[in-house]
Amino acid sequence: MENQEKMNKEKLKSMEAIFEAKIANDEKIEPKDWMPEKYRKTHIRQISQHAHSEIVGMLPEGNWITRAPSLRRKVALLAKVQDEAGHGLYLYSACETLGISREEMYDQLHSGKAKYSSIFNYPTLTWADMGAIGWLVDGAAIINQVPLCNTSFGPYARAMVRVCKEESFHQRQGYEIMMTLCNGTQEQKDMAQDALNRWWWPSLMMFGPTDDESTHTEQSMKWKLKRKTNDELRQQFIDQTVPQADILGLTVPDLDLRFNNDTGHYDFGKIDWDEFWQVVKGHGRCNKERISARKNAWDNGKWVRDAAVAYAEKQSDKEEVKKAV
Amino acid sequence: MTNENLIQYLYGIADNSLILGQRLGELCGHGPTLETDIALTNISLDLFGQVRSYFQYLAELSKDDLTEDDLAFLRKEREYKNLLLVEQPNTDFAYIIVRQYFFDVFHYMLLEKLQDSKNVNLQGIAKKSIKEVAYHQRFSGDWLLRLGDGTEESKQKVQQAVSDLWVFTDELFHVTKDDEAVIKAGHGVDVRLLKDDYYAKITNQLKQATLEVPETKYFQKGGKQGIHSEHMGYILADMQFMQRAYPDMKW
Lengths: 325, 251
Ligand SMILES: [Fe+2]
Ligand SMILES: [Fe+2]
Ligand SMILES: [Fe+2]
Hints:
The structure holds two protein chains of two kinds. Chain A is mainly α. Chain A contains 13 helices and two strands, in the order ααααααααααββααα. In chain A, strands 1-2 form a two-stranded antiparallel ribbon. The longest helix of chain A is centred in the middle third of the chain and has 29 residues. The radius of gyration of chain A is 23 Å and the shape is globular. Chain B is 65% helix and 0% strand. Chain B is built from eleven helices and no strands. At the A-B interface, helix 3, helix 4, helix 7, helix 12 and helix 13 of A face helix 2, helix 3, helix 6, helix 7 and helix 11 of B. The structure holds fe (ii) ion (3 copies). The site of one fe (ii) ion has 5 residues of chain A, from helix 7. One fe (ii) ion (FE2) binds next to helix 7 of chain A. Chain B: This is Phenylacetate-CoA oxygenase subunit PaaC. Chain B: InterPro entries: Aromatic_CoA_ox/epox, Ferritin-like, Ferritin-like_SF, PaaA_PaaC, PaaC.
């Protein structure tokens, strides 16, 4: 008995050593590999949260599909929202390899246990929001996600490579919508400015709390779930986006924003963290609508999924009868 | 055949794809699974792609300087010539599938014949679209089987949808004066000749799905004349919103 325990302990130690060595050597961890429980849990949390963000993210833009102003824009928007569904699909599949089912993940989303990106709790009020979301929200997502293409967990890294390619296409498409508006009538320019005013600050919040407030960063850095801090990523986004706003002829809604020649970066004003926490805790403008839309889709779809399972079972029964005969 | 005959004939085909594509677009993000969401969006995308091909050709045919968007967004309700079937609402997944299946089978048969049109533009669009519609038909046909021969609940729901939507199938085979002229010129398809095959095909599929074939002799019509259901005004209010609220702008 004691021997057995000793052997188990030694085995565990050697597996831990193999795991640590892989991480240190920049090798991928694959689903069949041994991994510490904490690694598994952290990845389930992050990947499922990311997957949920993709599918909840379909809703604010889906809100404008029927009202898109031209056939070309309608097709592009449909395709974009469909891409987000595809991202959700790869990410759920990547997460399933860690031993959690899609049903469980949905339950966690519907019950509020699992989070998704707070940005999708803001309403889409005009067509210009389709431009602003592509430009800013997909833009911020890319900055958050490009480093994940090299993350340590193989299925997540590979999903991210595909996702990032499409996100940069979305970002260009969004910027092009903004450009068209800004080259249009005064009413269109006003619409674009209004969208920037509403989406700017929530986009900055997409990088999460400031570094001194954010938890478990060190562990995440080691596992390559994170390579830069929230504040570094946010700064990168601002530095990249402000000149793009200048080209559009739009004003970023921040009176403290100015280029700092000493640092080579933009200084910017104070983020309203109370608003951030309000939305994270479930009290944003659209938290309730978004969750209930997802829940309704799932609940109303139950009979459909049941039918598909029942049908498939009947078919395989028939196959077996055929084989037996 | 006059130019106007051809224009009206084209609306009669293209508006089906437009309005059904619009209906499917309402569903994006709300389907029973992520996979069905993606598939229905795909169908919607195919249909809008077809609409754009037809409308670009229509814009060429029209004397005024019209664009595809003028045709899609700026006509009056009476000027839309789609079938009543495609404007029916997304009541539930059973309705969505049955509406799709009833349309897809017809659409496929129509395109099959349209490939032989004397009109090279129509020939080209039909050849490109038929591959897409073959997939639509497989998708909706497979789901019809699953829902029909799935659970008691799904059977009852899909049977209801079949009974309710059946009354719109006869209109698929109506021919207007404009159609008549275009058919005569060898540019259009005489849909009356497709009717028997159509009913044979869907009856067979319904039986395979263990569903009852409705026996009603009463059918609805009017879409082809621009006399739509009460749903149509709302579809257009949504679809035309931007173009009406912000006229004469580029997007
Ligand atoms: Fe994303
Ligand atoms: Fe995405
Ligand atoms: Fe995206």
